[in-house]
C-alpha cells in the first residue's frame, strides 16, 4: 500500500482518495451536528441537578465549594439560551464544512466556490474560539453564586481556545490564498 504522502499517485487515484475521505467527512459532520443538538437538550433538560452541577463545575473550572452552581429550571433555561450561541456557531461551521466536503466528493477541489466555503469554515472556527470563553463568562455570571475565598475569575480562556483561534487564522489565510488563486485561474481562462 502506498504512503498517504506519496507524491507520485496518479491523478485519478488521488481524486478517488479525496472523494472517499470527503464522503466520510460528510457523515462525520452530520453526526457532529446531531450530537451538538442532542447534547444541548440532554445537558440542560435531561441531566439530574447533581450531574449538571458537576459538569458545569468542570466546564467553568470552579474548584471552591463556597461557590454554588444554580441548576433549577429557570437557570437551566438561561444556560440553554447562553450556550445556544456557541452551539449555533458550531452547527453553522459544521454545515458549511459538510457542503465543502460534498463539493470535494464531486471532484470540485480548487474552485472559487470551495475556496469561499473554506473561508466561511475558517471564520466559523475563529469565531468559535472567541465565543467559547464568552459563553463560559456568561454562564459564570448567570449560574454561579456564593461567597468564595476571594474574587472569582469570570473570563475563562484556556490554551485550547487560543489554539483553535490560531487554527482558524491559518485556515483563513489558506482560504484567502485559494480564493485569489481561483480568481487568477478564472481570469487566465479568458486569455486562452
From TrEMBL:
Keywords: Membrane, Transmembrane, Transmembrane helix. It comes from the Bacteria. The chain crosses the membrane at residues 25-47, 77-95, 121-146, 152-179. This is DUF2975 domain-containing protein. It comes from Cupriavidus basilensis.
Amino acid at each position: 500500500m502506498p504512503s498517504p504522502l506519496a507524491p507520485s499517485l496518479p491523478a485519478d487515484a488521488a481524486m478517488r482518495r479525496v472523494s472517499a475521505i470527503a464522503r466520510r467527512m460528510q457523515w462525520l459532520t452530520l453526526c457532529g451536528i446531531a450530537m451538538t443538538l442532542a447534547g444541548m437538550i440532554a445537558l440542560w433538560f435531561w441531566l439530574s441537578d447533581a450531574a449538571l452541577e458537576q459538569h458545569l463545575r468542570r466546564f467553568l473550572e470552579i474548584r471552591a465549594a463556597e461557590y454554588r452552581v444554580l441548576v433549577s429550571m429557570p437557570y437551566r433555561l438561561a444556560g440553554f439560551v447562553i450556550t445556544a450561541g456557541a452551539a449555533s456557531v458550531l452547527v453553522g461551521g459544521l454545515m458549511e464544512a459538510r457542503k465543502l466536503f460534498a463539493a470535494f466528493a464531486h471532484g470540485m477541489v480548487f474552485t472559487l466556490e470551495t475556496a469561499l466555503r473554506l473561508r466561511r469554515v475558517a471564520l466559523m472556527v475563529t469565531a468559535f474560539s472567541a465565543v467559547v470563553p464568552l459563553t463560559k463568562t456568561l454562564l459564570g455570571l448567570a449560574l454561579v453564586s456564593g461567597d468564595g475565598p476571594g474574587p472569582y475569575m469570570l473570563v475563562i480562556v484556556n490554551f485550547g481556545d487560543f489554539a483553535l483561534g490560531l487554527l482558524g487564522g491559518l485556515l483563513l489565510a489558506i482560504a484567502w490564498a485559494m480564493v485569489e488563486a481561483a480568481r487568477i485561474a478564472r481570469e487566465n481562462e479568458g486569455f486562452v
